Amino acid sequence: MSSSASTTPISYKDAGVDIDAGDALVERIKPLAKKTMREGVLAGIGGFGALFEVPKRYQEPVLVSGTDGVGTKLKLAFEWNMHDTVGIDLVAMSVNDVLVQGAEPLFFLDYFACGKLDVDTAAAVVGGIARGCELSGCALIGGETAEMPGMYPAGEYDLAGFAVGAVEKSKILTGKTVAAGDVVLGLASAGVHSNGFSLVRKCIERAGDSAPATLDGKPFKQAIMEPTRLYVKNVLAALAQHPIKALAHITGGGLLENIPRVLPEGLAAHLQAGSWPQTELFAWLQKTAGIDDIEMNRTFNNGIGMVVVVPADAAEATAATLRAAGEAVYTIGRIAERGDGASVVVA
Questions:
Q1: 326 and 191 in one domain?
Q2: CB distance 180 to 91 below 8 Å
């Protein structure tokens, strides 16, 4: 009996999904995830669900969750074959958001989706995720690798991340106590982080061969791809010692749109232009794009990745603690009555 196209067996691998490659990736991931294990983990990678027990030191724990991706920064990772740090970005975007509520990140889950699984590329990405978790004291407790033929162009993938943290109910940061006269501290960013990359990519395209060889002492591509700074450990340490009233993670929307999210009605942040340095990277982006200061502060973090609002009499000590931990800290402004003005004024 002759076989025909309709009766010839087709395996899952023939259809484009390689189960063996997926299994190989899991084996590569396990030792990376193991390095991130911490108090509370009851079951890690491998099960249908990951189990985590909230540490008993919490009296009234409130869970805080966050989710994010890496955005079009991934397009440069594909083009430049730089996959080892975008995982750090993935973790940072979620754990820094969770931190803003005063929460300690407890565990992290990732979702990696591609058309055809390249084990080496995926392992490089997950290695960055594990590193980000390690640096923020967060357990990489599970995730999903989805191989979906036809959904993504060859060599491309997408990432999503999910973080869960905990904070004592009495210590949740809401920004409600922020008052006129409070001081605004800015913690330096590591670079562009993971926002504004649609414009960054346009700038790279516009510059072409005239792009600089280095920016801020780093090779051009490294400066562009520098991962999002993880503020978790240093800010949590400062929170334990100082009366911090509010935090703002400076992501999409920049300083102009993120600071108002933690201000009570009727208050504004008055930032002093030039109170923090503009790096070569941001100066190059501004010049290449041909945009004004307002657009820079609305599109990029522009050099400030986290904002800390503290009472005036605690500002110096808070800044000293953060500097001692390794943060570059600038006093960038004060909180004032808003009146008829904007919620963030840079002048």
A1: yes
A2: no
Range of the domain at 44: 15-168
| 40 belongs to a structural domain | yes
Average pLDDT over residues 315-329: 98
In tens, the pLDDT along 148-189 reads 999 999 999 999 999 999 999 999 999 999 999 999 999 999
Report d(CA 94, CA 300) in Å as an integer. 17
Q: Among positive and negative, which fits the CA dihedral 122, 159, 68, 256?
A: positive
**pLDDT score of 44:** 63
Which one, of 233, 258, 250, lies nearest residue 322 by Cα?
233
| Number of domains composing the chain | 2
Per-residue model confidence (pLDDT) at position 5: 56
Q: Does position 38 have pLDDT exceeding 50, yes or no?
A: yes
C-alpha angle 160-239-168 in degrees, rounded to nearest 5 = 70
SS3 240: helix
Given a cut of 70, whether residue 1 has pLDDT beyond it is no
151 and 191, same domain (yes or no)? no
Whether residue 97 contacts residue 137, with contact meaning beta carbons closer than 8 Å, is answered with no
The residue with tokens 């109170």 is 275
Pairing between β-strand 267-271 and β-strand 344-346 as defined by DSSP bridges: parallel
In a shared domain, residues 192 and 157: no
* Rounded Cα distance, 305 and 302, in Å: 8
- What pLDDT does residue 212 have? 97
Q: Give the residue among 283, 118, 128, 137 at the shortest CA–CA distance from 216.
A: 283
Q: In percent, how much of the chain has pLDDT > 90? A: 86
- 37 & 71 share domain: yes
